UniProtKB/TrEMBL annotation:
Coiled coil: none annotated. SUPFAM superfamilies: Acid phosphatase/Vanadium-dependent haloperoxidase (SSF48317). InterPro entries: PAP2/HPO, PAP2/HPO_sf. Residues 193-207, 228-248 have a biased composition (Low complexity). This is Phosphatase PAP2 family protein. It comes from Streptomyces camelliae.
Amino acid sequence: MLVLPAVLLALLTWQVVTHGPLLRLDARVSGALVHPGGRFSEILSGLGNVQVAVPVLLFAIGYVLWRGHDAGTERWWLPPLAAAVLMALVPAIVVPLKDWTARPATPVMPPAVGYFPSGHTATAAVAYGSATLLLLPWLDSEATRRRLVACCTALVLGVSYGLVRHGYHWPLDVVASWCLSTVLLTTLSLVPGAGRSTRRSSSGIPRPHSDPGSPATSSDTETAAPARSRGSRTSRSSSSSSGSPWSS
């Protein structure tokens, strides 16, 4: 999931920079979808604002830090840190791309450049997607995990639709941000503890894997000692009652 979206992002960027034939198709699709002034599309596009999406990620980061530290999970700080770094990378990547491509706005927007790729789409996808990947390992129910993924997908698609419908962005601006976000989120999913279930105790709380060669804990020793003692008494009792000549 890293190579294909990266190649597609490079292809779309090349088309924008060279004013390739794909832009004509993009303009036709935009003309068919755009309807400026709609309140609903404006609300949807607003879900990609930094002030809306980033606090959701910060909440997920804080929750996972608390749960991981409380459960004593190994490297509990790594997935939240990786998510924060990826979120910081979004403007570091998107802004130079906007300046370099200098793509004009759609006809319904005031004359300006710097619309490729869509910053709102990338912000929404990385913020909501990272929050989802962080929370998935801490959810016990498969149905709950599916609902969380569906909610994240709906949010990103809603933002994307609102941006195109309102005329804030060309469709290819949004698709390019999908590709960029897929690369970033795939990278996050490779971090241990992000997006994958960890080993859980009977209470459903993730716990670190213990080293098979580690020494037994004091509770294990205390539990094993009475068991060995009972086994020794049982063995001696069986020996004395068997009529063996050595018992006399």
